[in-house]
Write a structure and sequence with these properties.
This is NmrA family transcriptional regulator. Residues 6-144 form the NAD(P)-binding domain. It comes from Pseudomonas trivialis. By secondary structure, the protein is of the alpha/beta class. The chain has two domains: 2-134, Rossmann fold, CATH 3.40.50; 138-164 and 193-255 and 269-290, UDP-galactose 4-epimerase, domain 1 (Alpha-Beta Complex). The chain has twelve helices and nine strands. It has helices at 10-20, 53-60, 77-91, 112-125, 139-142, 145-151, 168-180, 199-210, 221-230, 235-249, 259-264, 271-282; strands spanning 2-5, 28-32, 44-47, 65-68, 95-101, 128-134, 154-156, 187-191, 216-218. Strands 3-2-1-4-5-6-8 form a seven-stranded parallel β-sheet, with helices on both faces. Strands 7-9 form a two-stranded parallel ribbon. α4 (112-125) links the parallel β5 (95-101) and β6. α1 (10-20) packs across α7 (168-180) and α3 (77-91) packs parallel to α4. The radius of gyration is 19 Å and the shape is globular. The chain starts with a strand and ends in an 8-residue tail after the last helix.
Length: 290
């Protein structure tokens, strides 16, 4: 049996759908805080809370392979992930697949520390594991498209940094492959998009598709953080996002190993396709696209 933590999240839902294409739904378990919210997934759902160890052993009973999608609660991840690992050992889980961060062992991103500690905990656990080190989600930047259209420009601090982003659907596909096929035990994969792009290139692609010039304006880190705060982001989040951009300018989000496309057996989603999907979902009008 395969279980997915955070199965009602943006990535988890996609993994469940991918798994259902290759294994019976009866072999999939969604681990969620509120099973009622998982009813539309079409698989069994069990209550599991990263911060409540008492829920985890029961939730993991009978599970052979677990996809541990990293917690969204930055600053609490190490303890939460350790709770899951401990429960998995107690419940008899054989392998944990963990969604880590691209080049977690060397990444300068502030996010990397908790991922490094979780990876170490998995190595120390005695369980088989697979590390899926995710690069940036394309949606992290295409999600800013509505704001850029409203304001007339993309803002950021990434300079000419190359971002080898892929979509959540690409990463979900890779997770489904690793969860259902043999030969991935105790392996680490650096997952990123096939074609890296800059924020200037993202702005140019949006401009092309809508038929209107939306430039990219590079700002000093503090100015970008202040702008994000002005748009309503909490100050700590705004500072973190601006810091991620600066790290991107230094190459932290670049990878050209093509391990993701090799895993999923196809090229990763192109920038043009990711932009088109974002424009469609936001209801923005586009000119002819290709």
């Amino acid at each position: 049996m395969i279980a997915i933590t955070g199965a009602t999240g943006q990535l988890g839902r996609l993994v469940v759908e991918k798994l259902k294409q290759t294994v019976p739904a009866s072999n999939i378990v969604a681990l969620v805080r509120n099973p009622i919210k998982a009813s539309e997934l079409g698989v069994a759902a069990r209550t599991a809370d990263y911060s409540k160890p008492e829920t985890l052993v029961t939730a993991l009973t009978g599970v052979d392979t677990l996809l541990l999608i990293s917690s969204s609660e930055i600053g609490k991840r190490v303890e939460q992930h350790q709770n899951v690992i401990n429960a998995a050992k107690q419940a008899g889980v054989k392998r944990i697949v963990y969604t880590s961060l691209l080049h977690a062992d060397t990444s300068p991103l502030s996010l990397a520390g908790e991922h490094r500690q979780t990876e170490a905990a998995l190595r120390d656990s005695g369980l088989e594991f697979t590390l899926l080190r995710h690069g940036w989600y394309a949606e992290n930047h295409t999600g800013f498209i509505p704001g850029a259209l409203a304001g007339g420009a993309f803002l950021g601090s990434a300079g000419a940094g190359k971002i080898a982003a892929a979509t959540r659907e690409d990463y979900a596909h890779a997770a489904a492959v690793v969860l259902t096929r043999e030969g991935h035990e105790n392996k680490t994969y650096e997952l990123a998009g096939d074609t890296a792009w800059t924020l200037s290139e993202l702005a140019a692609e949006v401009s092309r598709q809508i038929g209107k010039d939306i430039p990219y304006r590079n700002l000093p880190e503090a100015d970008y953080a202040n702008a994000l705060t002005g748009f309503g982001l909490p100050e700590p989040v705004a500072r973190a996002v601006a810091g991620y951009d600066v790290s991107a300018s230094e190459g932290a989000l670049f990878d050209d190993s093509h391990q993701l496309s090799k895993l999923i057996g196809r090229t990763t989603t192109s920038l043009s396709a990711a932009v088109a999907a974002a424009l469609k979902s936001s209801g923005s009008q586009t000119r002819a696209t290709s």
